[in-house]
Design a protein that fits this description.
128 residues, 3 helices, five-stranded antiparallel sheet
């Protein structure tokens, strides 16, 4: 059976926008301060540290992704499932088609985050 694979790429700014929308939707409160940076990490190693003025990148391939938003006096950290949920919501709001049955996974790179969608032949047959 055929397998369908897609990769959706998200910039740091798109990740930030998606997380803000996710917080509004889930009523998660964020500090009422200006966000000074965004940090993507995988297995407790910093992958992307984005200051609102400049960015520094340092990448390796691992799992367990976390995103931390830095504020003036505090931080808010999001788990991999929260980031994935925020990015899926971001796609839905923009009309980007995404199969519900697709297996979804996240990966971090220098550019931002990548949402991998994979659907095998079994999922194709179940949708018919």
């Amino acid at each position: 059976m055929p397998t369908e694979s897609r990769i959706l790429d998200f910039s740091q700014n798109e990740i930030y926008e998606a997380l803000l929308a996710y917080c509004r939707q889930t009523r998660r409160e964020l500090p009422e301060q200006i966000c000074t940076g965004l940090i993507l990490s995988q297995n407790n190693e910093t992958k992307i540290a984005l200051s609102m003025n400049h960015s520094d990148s340092n990448i390796t391939q691992k799992s367990e992704i976390r995103v931390t938003l830095n504020f003036v006096d505090s931080q808010s950290t999001f788990s991999e499932s929260e980031v994935g949920g925020a990015l899926v919501m971001h796609c839905m709001k923009r009309g980007i088609p995404m199969a519900k049955r697709a297996v979804k996974s996240l990966e971090v790179s220098r550019e931002g985050a990548h949402l991998h969608l994979k659907m095998d032949g079994k999922a194709f047959r179940a949708s018919n």
